[in-house]
Design goal:
The longest helix has 18 residues, at 266-283. This protein is of the alpha/beta class. It contains 14 helices and ten strands. It has a single domain (9-354), classed as TIM Barrel, CATH 3.20.20.70. Helix content is 40%, strand content 13%. Helix 3 (60-68) crosses helix 4 (74-81), helix 6 (142-153) packs parallel to helix 7 and helix 8 (199-208) packs across helix 11 (243-249). It comes from Candidatus Blautia stercorigallinarum. This is 2-iminoacetate synthase ThiH. GO terms for molecular function: 2-iminoacetate synthase activity; 4 iron, 4 sulfur cluster binding; iron ion binding. Pfam families: BATS, Radical_SAM.
Length: 364
């Protein structure tokens, strides 16, 4: 299959087709007036690296050479993500497991996500929260947030991930900040998975108690990104790519990266994700880096969505490649994976997993 024509038709429904036929959409590469533009070449470097990555060129010898190196280079990372690496997956997994044990021991960190709101202003055609999907919307009050967090804290968990839909109107920066202040009463580590912000807004949330930020780029292929994100702030590709750097500029201790594997060519997206993290680690050596590895899954009102060719072996390959390329990085595994897959990945390379998960609002 062509690397440039890797379209997942399972995402497209009649409503999307109708929207696409209506004509011109806003320029996905042009910043909106309220978006901070930072002076950084990281995005350009990542895009250029991904553009030049031809995984069909790599051989078994390249993979073995990569495994022989104590410190993996970007070239080694390319080989480990290539199809040539799949027959050596057991050997790769053994190497990844050794790296995990060396840097993390047998520790597995647990956290729970709490959805405090699910209003969204974006039209992402693969997402169940998108503004066109007819689902029940809600937002917790501060009292309800406190009650939910108190209940979670009784379980003994010390880390929480606060999530909202991507709506600045319904989930303001101030609202999220108050949620962070409440969380600080109960938890040692507070993460955020919310809409991308400017660096001063990240600084405010850090002051309120937030420690790290997760932003999913979904796909790094800008043209494909445009066809998947039809409206809303999320449509603006460069603003989203640079979110982690703005978070670090705002004082956040850590940032997490992830592509939604199966939206586009998963090998190129996994490579771009790794390079994005690698470039920022070089630029901000103090930053705590982590990866999430979600695969595309069915959503409410569209059960036909599938992750194309990202099967369990390919997912394991990606996770192991991340571990070997960036051995100190945390790796989070989605609870949308079945227990057997999660357990296998935890034994080999994952370091963090969520517990008590509910995507409903106020369901803790």
């Amino acid at each position: 299959m062509s690397q440039e024509n890797h379209v997942n038709e399972s995402i497209i429904n009649e409503e999307v087709k109708e929207f696409l036929e209506k004509g011109k959409r806003t320029d996905h590469m042009k910043y909106l007036p309220d978006m901070e533009v930072i002076q950084s070449d990281v995005m350009d470097k990542v895009r250029e690296a991904a553009k030049n990555y031809d995984y069909s060129l790599y051989t078994e010898a390249d993979v073995r050479r990569a495994l022989s190196h104590d410190y993996k280079t970007p070239e080694d990372f390319k080989a480990l993500l290539s199809p040539a690496a799949l027959p050596l997956l057991e050997e790769i997994a053994q190497c990844a497991q050794k790296e995990t044990r060396k840097h993390f021991g047998n520790s597995i960190y647990m956290f729970t996500p709490i959805y405090i709101a699910n209003y969204c202003e974006n039209y992402c055609i693969y997402c169940g929260f998108n503004c066109h999907n007819r689902i029940k919307r809600a937002r917790l009050t501060y009292e309800e947030i406190d009650k939910e967090m108190a209940a979670i804290a009784k379980s003994g968990l010390q880390e929480i991930l606060i999530l909202t839909g991507e709506s600045r109107k319904k989930s303001t920066v101030e609202y999220i900040g108050e949620a962070c202040k409440i969380a600080r009463k109960y938890f040692r580590v507070i993460g955020l998975e919310v809409y991308p912000m400017n660096s001063d807004e990240y600084a405010y949330l850090h002051k309120c108690g937030a420690d790290y930020v997760t932003v999913f780029q979904e796909t790094y292929h800008a043209d494909k990104y445009e066809t998947l994100h039809l409206a809303g702030h999320k449509r603006i590709y460069p603003y989203r790519v640079n979110a982690q750097e703005r978070a670090l500029m705002g004082g956040m201790r850590g940032v997490a990266f992830g592509a939604l594997l199966g939206l586009d060519d998963f090998r190129k997206d996994a490579f771009a994700t790794g390079m994005h993290a690698w470039y920022l680690q070089k630029k901000y050596p103090q930053a705590e880096i982590s990866f999430s590895c979600p695969r595309l899954r069915p959503i409410i009102n569209n059960d036909k969505i599938n992750p194309m060719d990202v099967h369990e072996a390919q997912l394991l390959q990606v996770v192991c490649a991340y571990r070997l390329f960036m051995p100190f990085a945390g790796i989070t595994i989605s609870t949308r994976e079945c227990a057997r897959v999660r357990d296998n990945l935890v034994k080999i390379a994952a370091t963090k997993i969520s517990a008590g998960v509910s995507t409903g609002i106020g369901e803790h």
